[in-house]
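Appendix B, record 7
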Amino acid sequence: METDNKMGQEPINKLILQMSMPPLFSMFLQYSYNLVDSMFVAKINEQALAAVSLSFPITTLMNALSIWLGVGVNVRIASYLGQKRQEKADRVATLGLIVSVILGICVNLFVLAIMKPYYRAFTNDAQIFSYGMTYMQICAFMQIPNMVHILIQKELQATGNMLAPMWFQIAGVVFNFIFDPLLIFGIGPFPKMGIAGAALATVLGYTLSMLIALVMILFTKQKVRLQFQGFRFEGKMLGEVFASGLPSFIMNALGSFMVTFVNIFLVAYSDTAVAFFGAYFKVQQLIVMTVNGLIQGCLPIMSFNYGAGKKDRLQQSYRSGRKIATCMMAVGTLLVLVFPNQILALFSASKAMREFGIPAMRIMAIGFIFSGISTMAATYAQATNKLIQSIVIQLLRQAVLLLPVMWICNLLFHIWGIWIAFPITEIVVMIVSILIVKSDKISR
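Structure tokens (predicted):
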């Protein structure tokens, strides 16, 4: 029984490392290949990089929908297991998988329908429009495998199995790493597909991850079992899933809307500014989403111990997770402050891009260290079913506070105000998030 209850028995720091290292590593690789994808595309030309940068809000939103369902199922399974309700954990796992396929198909069709007006709204450059349409007409088909493999990943993580999800995600990442340059540049027997090759490598990488994940959940022994016989849709259970995953969806979806909003400002300056922000955001996402791997490990620990009524372990998990997140973000801040020129060189940045891009990266990087604290606070609120508080933190970070601050700073300082708005927002949100968690502890 020890393996069934390790989230309620193991020393917290040891448990966080066990639970967090595999998703942390897999998230690092996942967003590394997003970054590498842009690096290879940038070698085509700056217009191709701008097209992929404009597509990023769409692909981010697609990924956010996958995470919404996956995290919601994760939280419910971990909570049910903490309450020793195995049958309900199995039912929610089955419901999640079926819904992931249905929702994936719907999102796929929706993205295909909105691509043309979306690109028309953001660019008058015929080359950028052509690149963007080519890229997204293929990338839209990543949604079904992406949604299914993330759902299974979160199901397994909820049981404490962090290694298996790491391996099927790594398989997709390695595939993409290898086939990106082969298909973009036509190396060896492969056709030279350009930007279409980057999109195809992405879709095939996700498909490989999905196939391995399906084999794992269907044909190997896991602590949750899919129960298709006698399956029926349970509206209340599905509502609980979406409610539990809503803060994670908002955290990721707001990134999509934030990039769209920033692009609205940047297109008034130049396509180079749009291309730069797309490159920078890939770097920022690599840092932030690597820390999200830590959160993936901490969330089921906190959810389990909250469900089991072990408040001391819940609080200890939060404090330890916050310290680790802060240290990781400090390292990310330092890297961007010290090596902005080298980072932009990875994207074949022009002299014009580097002139404003290097100081811009240093300004925005200041906010990283503060975002680690607020993100862990939002995770604590999510794990303890304080969904409103978790959502408030995420809304402040990427919409309610950021957008007006950016608008005001843009009026005062022009393009530099856009960069300044990020650290200002992160500092204020960190203070608010600390107060929210402190008030919750007092109420307990």
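Remarks on this record: The radius of gyration is 21 Å. The chain has 17 helices and no strands.
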